[in-house]
Structures are given as C-alpha cells and as structure tokens.
Design brief:
Elements lengths: L3 E7 L2 E9 L2 E6 L8 H8 L3 E7 L14 H15 L5 E4 L2 H12 L3
Parallel strand pairs: 3-4, 3-5
Antiparallel strand pairs: 1-2, 2-4
Helix pairs in contact: 2-3
C-alpha cells in the first residue's frame, strides 16, 4: 500500500502519521530532529512491514504539557499504539527514538 498521511488525536495531542506498506506493523520513532527522509526507504521496508511513522515534537518534550522525560514519551507512544489499535509491533528508533523504543519494550514486552 502506498504511504498516506493521517492526523491522529492522542488525548489532546495531534500526531501526524505516515502509514504505508503491508505485513506486520513496524513503528518508526524519530530522533529529536523529527521525521526526515522516511519516504526514501519506506517503499522497500513496506514490502515486508506496514510502517507507522508518527511525528511528535520532542523539544523540549513539548508534545504535551505533562511530558517531562523519556518515560513520559514512552507512555505517550503506548497510548498512541492503543489509539491506533496496534497491540504487537516491531519497533525501530533513531537517536532519541531508539531510547524511547527501548523504554517501550521494557514497559510492554509483548
């Protein structure tokens, strides 16, 4: 499936999500610089996975007033997964997104 953009509301926060591909869900968490260049490789990765690439503002944890730590960002992404109806996913994180992915994995090992 070609990539499409959606805006998802998680609590009071709007999250832009690029979704594309087919197969098991792969959630891509960007670094502090944002989601840059995902479309260049999404077609290739999308041959095996349905890619979900959400974009939230990470500086200085200002996606929502209550976000003050990496744990808070991980909890937010857990909430995002619930809103998207995704229970079992593969995670890929770049830079701070890798740290958040590791926290997600410890919070919800399944």
């Amino acid at each position: 499936m070609p990539p499409r953009e959606e805006v998802i509301t998680v609590g009071a926060t709007k999250v832009q999500v690029v979704i594309g591909g087919q197969g098991d869900p792969l959630v891509v968490l960007h670094g502090a610089g944002g989601n840059r260049g995902w479309r260049r490789w999404m077609a290739t990765v999308g041959e095996r996975y349905t890619v979900y690439a959400p974009t939230i503002r990470l500086r200085p944890f200002d996606a929502a007033d209550w976000m003050e730590s990496i744990d808070d960002l991980a909890r937010f992404y857990l909430w995002f997964l619930d809103v998207m109806g995704l229970s079992k996913v593969h995670l890929l994180g770049h830079s701070i997104g890798g740290w958040i992915a590791a926290e997600l994995a410890t919070m919800r090992p399944g």
